[in-house]
Write a structure and sequence with these properties.
Elements (H helix, E strand, L loop, with lengths): L5 H6 L3 H26 L8 H9 L1
């Protein structure tokens, strides 16, 4: 049976994969921000949760 060390497994993640994951997170946040500022806020539509409360205050 092979002894698997979780720390070594985590460190084997490639740098390119990590950069791609951060890029996708940033892209998702930009799309979310665009949708709120272009579609929801100008039409006075309030979403749910904390974002909805901040939209009401804004």
């Amino acid at each position: 049976m092979q002894n698997i060390n979780p720390i070594n497994t985590i460190r084997k993640t490639s740098t390119g994969k990590i950069i791609w994951q951060y890029f996708m997170i940033i892209l998702g946040v930009l799309m979310y921000t665009f949708a709120w500022s272009v579609f929801l806020i100008p039409q006075h539509i309030v979403g749910g949760g904390v974002a909805g409360i901040s939209s009401i205050i804004f």
